[in-house]
Amino acid sequence: MIPAIHPPRLAGVWQSIRGKSLPHQCPVCRLSLPADHTLCCDACWDKHHQAYGCQCCGLPVLTPQTHCGQCLSHPPAWHTLTAISAYLDPLPDLVHRFKYQGDFELALPFATLLSEKIDTPAPVLLPVPLHWRRRLQRGFNQSAHLAWALQQRLGSQVVNHYLRRTRHTSPQQGLDRSARLKNLRGAFRLHGALPAEHVALVDDVVTTGETVSQLCRLLRRAGAKRVDIYCIARTKLP
To answer: How far apart are CA 171 and CA 110, in angstroms?
Structure first.
């Protein structure tokens, strides 16, 4: 059994790091960051990040839309998907540092930017789970850290052990849709009673959406009326 880090204590560490140990600086160029900037300076934040995203699937659209043509013809398993932006520089490097190098100070600025885009917060946040082997290897679940930071901004509650990953699957990167579906078949289960009828899955990056779709279908069968997705970035479909 892997001991969990207590979220409030971890949040205090983040605040201490941001407020005392490190200057308020851009994580990309390390220059001083203006007080009204949360994550990066203007020079390091690509102008394409201002592009619109479909409120349903999160993919880029030319004008603000609640449902793009793809969502109308093939509705996703979730209600809405909210991301900070598309997967454009400097996000790939920052996400890699957050996900693989334990750069936890990025959780709060990620959560701040993401929370500003969420109009109707879900009362319960469910981090996308890692299999215990991968968590043991990595030492943490980055989705749980993002959820704990979002909890402070949204006033929601993180339920960390309701979703369980029961199979150690191969990484989804590089697999086609058929292989992704086969890879995830029977990979998840629910533990206990559904914590709320409106929940949000929290993940780092959503690509094809197969992982969160599998979880959405499980949650719907358990009685969830609305399932949203909160993530740092949404990539274009391959």
So the answer is: 24
What angle separates helix 107-115 from helix 7-16, to the nearest 10 degrees? 100
- Determine contact, residues 157/124, Cβ cutoff 8 Å: yes
- Sorted by sequence, the CB contacts under 8 Å of residue 22 that are 6+ apart come out as 105
CA distances from 53 to 86, 176, 224 (A): 8, 24, 25
- Hey, CA dihedral for 50, 216, 4, 184, is it positive or negative? negative
SS3 4: coil
- Side-chain half-sphere exposure of 95, counting CA atoms within 13 A: 20
Q: Which of 197, 205, 203 is nearest to 226 (CA)?
A: 197
Task: Determine contact, residues 83/207, Cβ cutoff 8 Å.
Answer: no
CA atoms of 230 and 225, how far apart (whole Å): 17
- The arithmetic mean of pLDDT across residues 136-145, rounded, is 84
Q: Give start and end residues of each alpha helix (H) in the chain.
A: 7-16, 69-73, 91-100, 107-115, 132-138, 142-154, 177-184, 210-221
Contact status, residue 203 vs residue 143, Cβ threshold 8 Å: yes
Q: How far apart are CA 144 and CA 4, in angstroms?
A: 10
Looking at residue 186, what is its pLDDT?
Answer: 67
Average pLDDT over residues 55-68: 89
